[in-house]
Amino acid sequence: MLRRLPLPLARSSLRSFIHPFSNSLAFRHYSYTPQINRHFTMSKRKHTELETPVYDPSHTFDKESKDFKPIVWIDCEMTGLDVFNDHIIEICCIITDGDLNIIDEGYESVIHYDKEVMDTMNEWCVEHHGDSGLTKKVIESEKTLETVERELLEYLEKFTIKGSAVLGGNTVHMDRAFMMREMPKALEHLHYRIIDVSSITEFGKRHNFNLIKKCPKKKEAHTARADILESIAQLKWYRDNYFVQPE
């Protein structure tokens, strides 16, 4: 996901948030001390860096089960942040269960656009997509937007029941906005609710900044797969350090 440009779209409406965990979660009890006022305490588990999640083929799941509670993690790389004029050029999808276990290797693809289109990108996109090699991949790709949407929908249908999976990611409302215009059929397969990890981050900064600043920083690779894995790892960190099972 692009992060450094001003957002031209200011109409997202995140009205509801659901926790991705199988059992309900509760915040830690407040610690009332002179030094820390209404701050959560850290769990004993601390990490110096985000632990990159990996796919374990031995992990089993049943997409028909009500306990599955899938999260469809999607990250798009675009030619810019103008929802009405820019385009998705890369998309990656990784599915986890409610406990954030990755259930498959995932789907990812690059969509073809001509060099003329890529040359119209803003300076940030030209630099970062060029450095990552994405611009070259886009020009060389033979896949159309329609092909990628069809493949993505087939992937979602293979692992999830329509309407059962929520969309997850960081600032994922932007990915959703682009998908609404360019991949509506794939988006319709998902539940209307989303899990936006950045919302937890922003709340934590206001509620318990001393804890949130201990969360290892993301590497900001700005490739779709890397961004998703970091989002999953970040939510795992919040689960282990910010949330706890109720007694």
TrEMBL record:
Keywords: Exonuclease, Hydrolase, Nuclease. SMART domains: EXOIII. One of its GO terms (molecular function) is 3'-5'-RNA exonuclease activity. GO terms for cellular component: mitochondrion. Residues 70-244 form the Exonuclease domain. Gene3D superfamilies: Ribonuclease H-like superfamily/Ribonuclease H. It comes from the Eukaryota. Belongs to the oligoribonuclease family. This is CYFA0S21e00496g1_1.
